[in-house]
């Protein structure tokens, strides 16, 4: 073992000291801003872990988007409004000829296979986006079509089987335009400004809330299936066998008896945590692989391929091992005739934009902060404008592949926990997604209970930040708490952040008004414990403004201005350290 460890350390040292290591600022590269603790093999391992925790998106996103109907045309009848029993329509969706009356599946030559188009598209977009993001920004954050936005795209904009007000093609056009609007806002500095004005405790709380959000996903049917919704209570204990699951997804009885639940808890949870306690860096990957391999054999109580029509389809696809399915029906199908549904198109466009601004910006900042690259002076992270622009362009590229909006994935935290600090982590994740295009049968067959406990463990690790919330003052503590709990309970990062900001504005606005109306005589006794809320003076101007300044005034004038700005920041920071509180 010592020989192997020495060999691996030697590889890390050689790569770190090379030009490659300096480009990615690996520890020991000699770069002024090298990322402490980063090394090549750790970055690769972290990227693979991020991929394994995100791999479910290949199967889940394709299933959700296929429910929109995509380019398949539904001709509803009185007794089949959504073409659920239409043989031709369903063959278009899943590439198989489905005879509803006798519950029989058979192959057909005339298939369109839209669902597998989405499998290829999802893997390709996630691969391209993650690789480009890692290469251009040197941040360990992966991109993929976002959960939540894909559901909004499918069920509210396009509608189930195309029953909504906007067609699938027009909805893709809205996503395409949103990407360019997003880039414009990034170049003008709006997204950076949004991050800077958010109070510190709420920014910290966002990371904690995302951790709880991940935990909820891991516990739900997207994970180990421990909890579900209920008619009586918001959530309920689950974990029952499929035959005991009611039509609304609740367990009618025999809770906590599902073998897949216990396989996920024991091998994916306890075993992974046990390995982590011994500092085994590949613990999460090992847990996911073990649970997946155990779940693949058929005729077991915990198989991912039960002997049902759906299980047969999954197993037939899995047996191919290596297979490439070209995108035939969702590539470049945008429709620019927006005048037909102008109002609905505009509503969809701005909803995508608004949710993405809040959701993606909060996730990017939280993940950057979690990886330790946020500047305490400016409140910004390296190459932030480039990061936001890359995110925006990936949204546009994704629409050309037929996908809903792409966003930064909170599962990136899994790789960050394993030591991912540079863009090599995201690039590795991207390469894995690109490889999965040809190994889609395998990666699409990773069961949700294999990754559920991994998400729970990541949520546990992200709770560490909660100690940085200012619990001493209610004006900071309550908004932070609302942010933390609203994210998992509303199942949305965006809504959680909005709830926290609204609470902060109302509560502290009332305190401020009373203080002003009474001339400062009535104020909370511990207001001195409150956090300073100022826009960081040291933040760099947006890239677009810096570029224009350099073009008009020249580099020397811009550099002088930046040095003056830095001096002002250092002076103000010194005052804060010396105990001079900036009052609201």
UniProtKB/TrEMBL annotation:
It is found in: Membrane. One of its GO terms (biological process) is guanine transport. InterPro entries: Azg-like, NCS2. It comes from the Eukaryota. It is a multi-pass membrane protein. The keyword DNA-binding does not apply. GO terms for cellular component: plasma membrane. The chain crosses the membrane at residues 118-143, 170-190, 202-224, 260-278, 345-365, 422-440, 446-464, 495-514. GO terms for molecular function: purine nucleobase transmembrane transporter activity. Keywords: Membrane, Transmembrane, Transmembrane helix, Transport. Its main location: membrane. Belongs to the nucleobase:cation symporter-2 (NCS2) (TC 2.A.40) family. Azg-like subfamily. PANTHER family: PURINE TRANSPORTER (PTHR43337:SF3), XANTHINE/URACIL PERMEASE C887.17-RELATED (PTHR43337). This is Putative xanthine/uracil permease.
């Amino acid at each position: 073992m010592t020989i192997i460890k020495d060999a691996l350390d030697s590889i890390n040292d050689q790569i770190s000291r090379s030009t490659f290591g300096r480009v990615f600022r690996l520890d020991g590269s000699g770069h002024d801003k090298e990322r402490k603790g980063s090394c090549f093999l750790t970055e690769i391992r972290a990227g693979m872990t991020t991929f394994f925790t995100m791999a479910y998106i290949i199967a889940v996103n394709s299933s959700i988007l296929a429910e929109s109907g995509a380019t398949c045309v539904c001709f509803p009848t009185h007794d089949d409004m959504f073409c659920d029993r239409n043989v031709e329509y369903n063959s278009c969706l899943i590439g198989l000829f489905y005879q509803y009356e006798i519950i029989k599946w058979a192959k057909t030559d005339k298939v369109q296979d839209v669902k597998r188009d989405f499998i290829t598209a999802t893997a390709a977009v996630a691969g391209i986006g993650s690789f480009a993001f890692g290469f251009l920004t040197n941040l360990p954050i992966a991109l993929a079509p976002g959960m939540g936005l894909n559901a909004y795209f499918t069920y509210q904009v396009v509608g189930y089987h195309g029953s909504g007000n906007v067609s699938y093609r027009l909805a893709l056009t809205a996503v395409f335009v949103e990407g360019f609007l997003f880039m414009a806002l990034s170049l003008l500095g709006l997204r950076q400004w949004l991050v800077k004005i958010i109070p510190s405790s709420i920014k910290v709380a966002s990371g904690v809330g995302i951790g709880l959000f991940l935990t909820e996903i891991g516990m739900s049917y997207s994970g180990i299936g421990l909890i579900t919704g209920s008619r009586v209570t918001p959530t309920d204990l689950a974990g029952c066998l499929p035959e005991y699951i009611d039509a609304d997804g609740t367990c009618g009885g025999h809770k906590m008896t599902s073998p897949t639940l216990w396989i996920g808890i024991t091998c994916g949870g306890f075993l992974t945590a046990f390995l982590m306690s011994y500092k085994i860096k590949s613990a999460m990957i090992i847990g996911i692989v073990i649970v997946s391999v155990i779940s693949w054999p058929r005729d077991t109580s915990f198989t991912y391929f039960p002997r049902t029509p759906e299980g047969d389809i999954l197993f037939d696809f899995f047996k191919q091992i290596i297979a490439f399915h070209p995108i035939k029906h969702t590539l470049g199908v945008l429709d620019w005739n927006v005048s037909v549904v102008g109002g609905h198109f505009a509503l969809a466009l701005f909803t995508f934009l608004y949710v993405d601004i809040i959701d993606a910006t909060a996730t990017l900042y939280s993940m950057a902060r979690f990886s330790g690259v946020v500047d305490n002076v400016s409140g910004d992270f390296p190459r932030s404008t480039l990061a936001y622009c890359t995110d925006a362009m990936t949204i546009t590229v994704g629409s050309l592949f037929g996908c809903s909006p792409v966003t930064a994935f909170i599962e990136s935290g899994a790789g960050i926990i394993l030591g991912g600090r540079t863009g090599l982590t995201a690039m590795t994740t991207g390469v894995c997604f690109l490889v999965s295009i040809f190994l889609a049968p395998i990666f699409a067959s990773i069961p949700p209970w294999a990754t559920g406990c991994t998400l729970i463990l990541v949520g546990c690790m992200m709770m560490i930040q909660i100690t940085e919330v200012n619990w001493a003052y209610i004006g900071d503590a309550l908004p932070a708490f609302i942010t933390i709990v609203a994210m998992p309970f509303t199942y949305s990062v965006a809504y959680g952040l909005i709830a926290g900001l609204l609470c902060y504005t109302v509560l502290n606005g009332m305190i401020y008004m009373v203080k002003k109306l009474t001339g400062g005589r009535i104020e909370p006794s511990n207001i001195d414990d409150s956090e300073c809320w100022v826009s960081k003076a040291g933040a760099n101007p947006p890239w677009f403004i810096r570029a224009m300044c350099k073009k008009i005034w020249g580099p020397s004038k811009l550099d002088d201005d930046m040095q003056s700005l830095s001096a002002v920041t250092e002076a103000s920071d010194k005052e804060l350290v010396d105990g001079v509180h900036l009052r609201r």
